[in-house]
TrEMBL record:
GO terms for biological process: amino sugar biosynthetic process; carbohydrate metabolic process; fructose 6-phosphate metabolic process; protein N-linked glycosylation; UDP-N-acetylglucosamine metabolic process. This is Glutamine--fructose-6-phosphate aminotransferase [isomerizing]. Homodimer. Residues 287-427, 459-600 form the SIS domain. GO terms for cellular component: cytosol. Catalyzes the first step in hexosamine metabolism, converting fructose-6P into glucosamine-6P using glutamine as a nitrogen source. The lineage of its organism: Bacteria, Pseudomonadati, Pseudomonadota, Gammaproteobacteria, Methylococcales. GO terms for molecular function: carbohydrate derivative binding; glutamine-fructose-6-phosphate transaminase (isomerizing) activity. InterPro entries: GATase_2_dom, GFAT, GFAT_N, GlmS/AgaS_SIS, GlmS/FrlB_SIS, Ntn_hydrolases_N, SIS_dom, SIS_dom_sf. Keywords: Aminotransferase, Cytoplasm, Glutamine amidotransferase, Repeat, Transferase. It catalyses: D-fructose 6-phosphate + L-glutamine = D-glucosamine 6-phosphate + L-glutamate. Its EC number is 2.6.1.16. The keyword Cytoplasm applies. Its main location: cytoplasm.
Length: 610
């Protein structure tokens, strides 16, 4: 949540800051701002409510140019989205701060600073940071020391960037609980919430650790740990290309990302399956031995990633034969957990930075799980770094806030895990070979489903006026229905709920009328007949059904029953295949409703606060 970027250079950094913000906009987009130190070492600031483009157009008429600067794109936590609450926050024209995170003791600090004569201009928790730094500067501390002392009084999570007229050639950054990277350039250095923000400027990065404070100038980056000791952190070269996040010919990132799924799945499988087998090496050097002793699995994740975990539970229990529990991270982390011996702890996260998932992982490490495995899309992320083993999805950068290719690649990766565990629990080589074959065919199958887009677009027209929708599935397709409903909610603002269709008669049937579209996924599996009776229950009550059904399913279109045929799909991979039409349906409904598809209101892609 919130994105920060900063630079110290011999050139004007305003364009670097704006481009960085553009690339970080997925983290939050209710307001944005930047502050630079100009040639006479004075602070210039510009802030705007709304998207980065508002800030960019304001820049055309205001000269905000300097060689040292910080910038921010906001996702409101404390204080409404407004120019007044937008970052950077400034104290007495002398210090400017950008912040990502939440300062939990901000009320106490605010009271104390008010008594010391500091005026507060915003409702944010962040503003205490800038006044506190100012107070320490006033006491004669250097900028670095002032930030260091300020960090000691802050409780909560933060990543901050600080500049000041007191030392106009410096940029100080600190992190505790929120992500922050340092980008290393030639006689110029940068900070940002993630690597994407800076790939146009550099490929070399340092990942700050919790408690680190970095002192950046054009010539040097000095890092100190939480005890104030100078430390050397490893420099990583990223392979991310600057154009990896371009939208190309597509109207929205979400549409591009839906269409990238066949390739993303192919990449996720690349080098991990061979000759009908899943290679143990896929999980890294520590997993092979650890997996030998696994007796059960605990999965923890949020949002779409949680839905991937729910699908995996069906697979792990039915194919690998191990008990599996799945929980949303925000619940898991605050609950007293009993850890069965030999339990593998799996986190699933696109970003690898979701605060609750990361906190749950840290908690799990204390609780004594047998091994920790992250299924993640961002190699440099905190969750990857905190986990003993990792299985990277290779979806590439996902920009659309509504997750699509991250989900289907997570499911692909999870199937690899299911086989790796299953082999240790009696999964026969022929079964393994069959699953591997289905995985190999998956990209082609998804290509075929993508061809349904025109027909789905026509269906979407009938959803534009609706206020509610119900999604139904059974077995592993219940979480698929949940994911479909989530997509519709997120981007079209239509209230959508998913139910395992057997539960219909326990409540939701009361809602059914002609105004309530009911979307169902009907793969050809052993629950088909049961699903069909559930659908008849809907039809009999005047509900309008929209069914995605396997070509082999004996069902006909009829008044109140709209049918789209999905090519023959094997049961094991069906949850991955059937997700795609639901993504397309949500996308096209959102187009009709005219919402901001890639950046839906109130949401952010990466939730780095609780
Ligand atoms: C946010 C995003 C979702 C995502 C969830 C978990 O809510 O909008 O798309 O599924 O966070 O994120 P993660 O990066 O951990 O998968």
């Amino acid at each position: 949540m919130c994105g920060i970027v900063g630079a110290v250079a011999h050139r004007v950094v305003t364009p670097v800051l704006i481009e960085g913000l553009r690339r970080l906009e997925y983290r939050g987009y209710d307001s944005a701002g930047l502050a630079v130190l100009d040639d006479s070492a004075q602070l210039q600031r510009l802030r705007r409510k709304g998207k980065i483009r508002e800030l960019e157009s304001a820049l055309q008429t205001s000269l905000v140019e300097g060689k040292v600067g910080i910038a921010h794109t906001r996702w409101a936590t404390h204080g409404v989205p407004s120019e007044r609450n937008a970052h950077p926050h400034i104290c007495r024209e002398s210090v400017a701060v950008v912040h990502n995170g939440i300062i939990e003791n901000h009320e106490d600090l605010r009271d104390r600073l008010r008594q010391k004569g500091y005026d507060f201009d915003s409702e944010t928790d962040t503003e205490v940071i800038v006044h506190q730094i100012h107070e320490f500067l006033d006491e004669g501390l250097s900028l670095f020391e002032a930030v260091k002392e300020t960090c000691k009084v802050l409780e909560g999570a933060y990543a901050v960037g600080v500049v000041s007229i007191a030392e106009p050639k410096r940029l100080i950054a600190a992190r505790h609980g929120s992500p922050l990277v340092v980008g290393l350039g030639e006689s110029e250095n940068f900070i940002a919430s993630d690597v994407f923000a800076l790939v146009g400027e550099t490929q070399r990065f340092i990942f700050l650790e919790d408690g680190d404070i970095a002192d950046l100038s054009t010539e040097a980056v000095c890092i100190y740990d939480r005890n104030g000791n100078a430390v050397q952190r490893p420099v990583h070269e990223t392979k991310l290309a600057a154009d990896a996040v371009e939208r190309g010919e597509y109207r929205h990132y979400m549409q591009k990302e839906i269409h990238e799924q066949p390739v993303a799945i192919e990449k996720t499988l690349d080098g991990r399956i061979r000759a009908g087998k899943v290679l143990d090496a896929a999980f890294g050097p520590y997993a092979e031995k650890a997996f030998d002793h696994i007796k059960s699995v605990q999965i923890v994740a949020c949002g779409t990633s949680y839905h991937a975990g729910m699908v995996a539970r069906y697979w792990i229990e039915s194919i690998a034969g191990f008990p599996c529990h799945v929980e949303v991270a925000s619940e898991f982390r605050y609950r007293k957990n009993v850890v069965p011996p030999g339990t593998l702890f799996v986190t699933i996260s696109q970003s690898g930075e979701t605060a609750d998932t990361l906190a749950a992982l840290k908690e799990a490490k204390k609780l004594g799980y047998a091994h920790t495995l992250a299924i993640c899309n961002v190699p440099e992320s905190s969750i990857v770094r905190e986990s003993e083993s990792t299985l990277m999805t290779r979806a590439g950068p996902e920009v659309g806030v509504a997750s699509t290719k991250a989900f289907t690649t997570q499911l692909t990766a999870l199937l690899l895990l299911v086989v790796a565990l299953g082999k240790r629990n009696g999964l026969a080589p022929e079964q393994e070979a069959r699953i591997v074959k289905e995985l190999e065919n998956l990209p082609e199958q998804i290509e075929r489903v993508l061809l349904l887009e025109d027909e789905i677009e026509q269906w979407a027209e009938r959803f534009g006026e609706k206020r509610h929708a119900l999604y139904l599935g059974r077995g592993a397709h219940y979480p698929v229905a949940m994911e479909g409903a989530l997509k519709l909610k997120e981007i079209s603002y239509i209230h959508a709920e998913a139910y395992p269709s057997g539960e219909l008669k326990h409540g939701p049937l009361a809602l059914i009328d002609a105004e309530m579209p009911v979307v169902a996924v009907a793969p050809n599996n052993e629950l088909l007949e049961k699903l069909k009776s559930n659908l008849q229950e809907v039809q009999a009550r005047g509900g309008e059904l929209y069914v995605f059904a396997d070509v082999r399913v004996p069902m006909e279109s009829a008044p109140g029953v709209n049918l789209l045929r999905v090519a023959e799909t094997e049961e094991i991979v069906a949850p991955i295949v059937y997700t795609v039409p639901l993504q397309m349906l949500a996308y096209h409904v959102a187009l009709i409703k005219g919402t901001d598809v890639d950046q839906p209101r109130n949401l952010a892609k990466s939730v780095t606060v609780e």
